[in-house]
Amino acid sequence: VCLSEQQQEDVAECKTTSSSESYRDRLLRFDRILCDVPCSGDGTIRKSSKQHWLKWNSQRGNGLHGLQLQIAVRGVQLLKDDGRMVYSTCSFNPIENEAVVSALLTQFKGSLELIDMSSSLPKLIRSSGFSTWKVNDLDGKWYSSFDEVPKNRKKKLPKSMFPPENVNDFHLDRCMRLLPHQQDTGGFFVAVFQKSPKLKPAKTSNDSEMVLDSESKSD
């Protein structure tokens, strides 16, 4: 099941007309979910048109971070126990990638595991995920931690964008960075999660607690 970018339709809660009456108000759970989220697309440099790069700027990733995390949270909520979810982007920006992964693992506190796919995909050439990164602001300043961010910018550069103190516990090296030259493709980021039965049942989309709100998005 793919969580769609289309905002006019709540795909995750679509009801099937062929279901019996007793099932129509029941929220479906899925054993496999793909979250191919909206992203800045900087991994597509080999194929994207000139117009794409004229519009691109370094803040696009910051602006999408909140939405990406919301989609990933919703995906986990809709996942069955022991189910797997793939989170993917065509970006190399850690704010869209490892920051979302670590925020997701923090949110679900041990009920979600980042899976090592090395044995399943032994011939896939890739680079490991990052465990350290900095966050860039509008004025070009770089911050290594949330504590360094000025008070008036903390809503735009939330804590979830930064590596957590326990980042090494998350094994972010299990994330896969697929660089264009490695397989003659576009650039991608992929992380595979498995859900533990310990996780609480999903809420409906109306009362779901999302980690970030619209105020967290960058200017």
Report on the structure:
This protein is an alpha+beta fold and 219 residues long. The protein has a single domain (27-213), classed as Vaccinia Virus protein VP39 (Rossmann fold). 18% of the residues lie in helices and 17% in strands. It is built from four helices and eight strands; from the N terminus they run βααβαβββββαβ. It has helices at residues 50-55, 60-77, 98-108, 180-183, and strands at 30-36, 79-89, 112-114, 127-128, 135-136, 142-143, 176-178, 188-195. The strands form two sheets. Strands 1, 2, 3, 4, 7 and 8 form a six-stranded mixed β-sheet that branches. It has a two-stranded antiparallel sheet with strand order 5-6. S-adenosyl-L-methionine binds at residues 10, 36.
Secondary structure topology:
Blueprint: E1 30-36, H1 50-55, H2 60-77, E2 79-89, H3 98-108, E3 112-114, E4 127-128, E5 135-136, E6 142-143, E7 176-178, H4 180-183, E8 188-195
TL;DR of this structure?
Helices cover 18% and strands 17% of the residues.
Q: How many helices in DSSP terms? A: 4
Q: Provide the β-strand percentage band.
A: 15-25%
Helix-strand pattern, N to C?
EHHEHEEEEEHE
Task: Give the overall shape.
Answer: globular
Radius of gyration: 18 Å
CATH topology descriptor = Rossmann fold
Major β-sheet profile: 6 strands, mixed
CATH architecture group name: 3-Layer(aba) Sandwich
| CATH homolog superfamily | Vaccinia Virus protein VP39
> What is the count of structural domains?
1
Mean pLDDT: 84
How far is the first residue's CA from the last residue's CA?
A: 32 Å
CATH class: Alpha Beta
Portion of residues in helices? 10-25%
Stretches with pLDDT under 50, minimum 5 residues: 201-219
Tally of strands: 8
The class by helix and strand makeup works out as alpha+beta
